[in-house]
């Protein structure tokens, strides 16, 4: 099983640039083209939030238009830039479309089970899970303790050292950590929000955040670091289930890097 994780696409209406500078539409198109060029196509594509930049119906319509060439199953969870009701209206067939409350969901019937969490707190950049959300996560994880599982969410349940991002992470991360610590079948916790590929550990479980296919958060570890982005190479993640080994995560760097070159010729390393 191969899972593509694309995060923080921040799609705007056609012709508009994020922060007046970033052409997020072209960036998503380049990301999908890069994915399409891979030898092995993923079984599904999981978008971990900030699909749109301001969560308007027009932005979601544009997002759907840009996704049209994809031809793969798509799963969505919201980020702080998204709007639940606008997402429900845009995807009326989604599992959460006709349910009130948060847009949690579970992707079943694959070797890896994926639990998608909605950490959005309307009006805030930061994320939160209420006691009932944590109870739902706990009981959903307990349903299939023998099945390798991914927990996917937008807000990181850890601090990364970039203070302005840490200020808007999952604000009750210790409560989340206590739940995942009880479930050793969690192979990986996936998040977005940080616009950088970052690895951490929460409740004894490995966590990775995805880069954005558009702009990255500037790495500035100063305590008073201002909130800034940088056009470092864009990317996305591929998560591969390797039987008898486990889940491995490949960071994909979007771009055209030319041909593939052999290491060997006639069975010998090229000197
Ligand atoms: Fe974002």
UniProtKB/TrEMBL annotation:
Domain named Calcineurin-like phosphoesterase: residues: 1-197
GO MF annotation, one: metal ion binding
This protein's UniProt keywords: Hydrolase, Iron, Metal-binding
Coiled coil spans: none
One Pfam assignment: Metallophos
Protein family (similarity comment): Belongs to the cyclic nucleotide phosphodiesterase class-III family.
Record protein name field: Phosphodiesterase
